[in-house]
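Problem 3 from the worked examples.
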Amino acid sequence: MPPQTERYLALARLGRNAWWRYALGAATIAFFWLVLGYVPYLLLVGAGLSGQLFEYLAVNFSIFMMLAGLVLTVKVIHRRPLLSLITPKARVDWLRVARGALVWAVIAAVIVAIEHALFPDRYFLSFDAERFFLYLVLVLVLTPIQAGTEELVFRAYAMQGLALLTRRPALVAVASSLLFTVPHLLNPEVYEHGVLIMAANYFAIGMLLATITLRDGRLELAIGLHAMNNVFLALVANYEGSALTTESIFTALELDPVYTLITLVIGALVFHRWIFRRAPEVREKGEG
């Protein structure tokens, strides 16, 4: 196991890590996310409140509750610092977050441009200034928090906990990616395109995020990538029927899950090559 990977996964040992604490922690996070996070939504739906903006805010509220459950779990149940979920260093490296976001923005833009060239009738201009700028503010504020929370739960907390059971990083990455895939199978895209192909898509993005976290020995790159992926989807190139109910500049008439899976795998390889082609230098900058 590479030393930076071992250091990151070993952060779980800073706190109290008996198996029952992880069971209680997982139950606490799930309760805050799926129960406390959705009770207000169900009550408001029962009162007749609905709409695209409401759906977007409701989903983000549930993620905020997931974050609250995670904080309670880490601080009270495990009694360890929250920073230990992100890095073994004394502070978060925001330049790493920005690097992950910018590199993935370029890759995502190229993927969409190629898709438009191959299927010119798929995308249409859906920009509506009156609605777009409201969502611009909301997405730039809320979506990075949503993506960061998912990274803290499904990459950091899950992988560090799983590493207490096995010293094989590949098994840790696969198991955490499966955990990441399961809740995403409730997305509307699954009902339209089928479980297997959509599960493969979610698993692939999970593996990308897991492998860069393990390879870098910290979480910032994954947070930046995940945040940019969701912001790009929400504001630049969304598709009809998306789980992210926002106003984007361009909208595809449909999601092509096969194209998405193929380009996601290629994009993951490009991201790894781009970021880690000078791995010693990248890590050295983060050590300072």
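Problem 4, a separate protein:
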Amino acid sequence: MTIANIEGAGAATHVASRQMRNAMVASVLGWSLDLFDLFILLYVAPVVGALFFPSSVPTLSLAAVYASFAVTLLVRPVGSAVFGHYADVYGRKGAMLAAIVGVGVSTAAFGLLPTIAQVGIVAPVLFLILRLVQGIFVGGVVASTHTIGTESVSPNWRGAMSGLVGGGGAGIGALLASFIFLVMSSIFPGDAFAVWGWRCMFFSGLLTSLLGWFIFNNLEESPFFKAHLQMKLAGKIETTRAPVKLLFSGRYRYVLLLNLLLTFGGGAGYYLTSGYLPSFLKLVNGVPNGVSSLILMGASVAALASAVLVGAISDLIGRKKTFLLVGVCMAVLLPVCYLGMAKATDTTAITLYALAIAFLGNAGYAPVLIFLNERFPTEVRASGTGLSWNIGFAFGGMMPTFVSLASAGPAQIPMSLSVFAVVIFVIYLVGAAMIPETKGDFR
């Protein structure tokens, strides 16, 4: 199914061209702005750990922060169910707009929180409550941004679009967070960062809400959804009022379960690479904040290039072969990079390893988005994609917590990461071997 045969022969080319451009920008920026909000916590994890979850053992404080990150991931499926239902029944645009503004506002609220030294146990409780609220909105962003882009682009570029939204959005979000981290580290050097620097980083979430509203307020609806709505109004298809319920029926239950093997592997790979890099640089390599910011900015560019490249490869050789190829590379090369980076002492070597780790980590889930889109028809695509993505990424997002708990100290982190990477990508390869080829199956 193409845009042309959805819209009709008349103004199909004009509508497709305009919608393709706007939807690409909206999807990529929507996901990048929300990942920017999430990356803020990853970049200040050591500081936040000491202020809200203090411990005499650094890795335990770090584990607590990553656990709070996992809490957000666990409620993201709830957000996907709520906003995905809205997106499938009423449209992608409204769901995207509400979710993006919600994420930005909830992120900024973290900057207002009192620390444990100020109010005691109330501080971590408030912190976790806000993480839950933020997670629901982020789950909603996935359900909308991860469908409107691929539903609007040419069939020949859906894999590349998948990488651009999923991995490219992540890379741009991380790049923005790295830049803010660099700016705040310069304005609030040394101990001052633990007083005001981390708060100002969270306050920047308000900028994403304003920018999101400006970008998405005039966005056109997805052509697939518009055609689907027209057919419903004409009585040509049956109206689906409960897309989430339909997903858990016998018709789609196995599809969801099989999807989770890939989304778990892709999510875990992402959070153990790009997500763990800020802590790795600080705790294992002892890199100063300013230098770390520059390295992370470079890693974000590598992540963007990897995601688009691997997504485009899936357009050429198919989704299944791409998953198998990437899975083998991840299981073999990630341990080499982790252990090599731990031994590196000069900045150049550390940077090269960081770039390689970011490149590999984003390759793991670059084609996942379009694969999920192709697994579900338009009537349940937002809900099915959002739930598959967020449930898998929820479990994958727990892996940094387990890595930190499995490490007695910073010196053990590289080996823990290596072991987890091998096990996770064996699971990923099992999923890749079991799935059908979906390339071109878009309905």
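Solution to problem 4. Confidence is low (pLDDT under 50) at residues 1-15. The chain has 21 helices and no strands.
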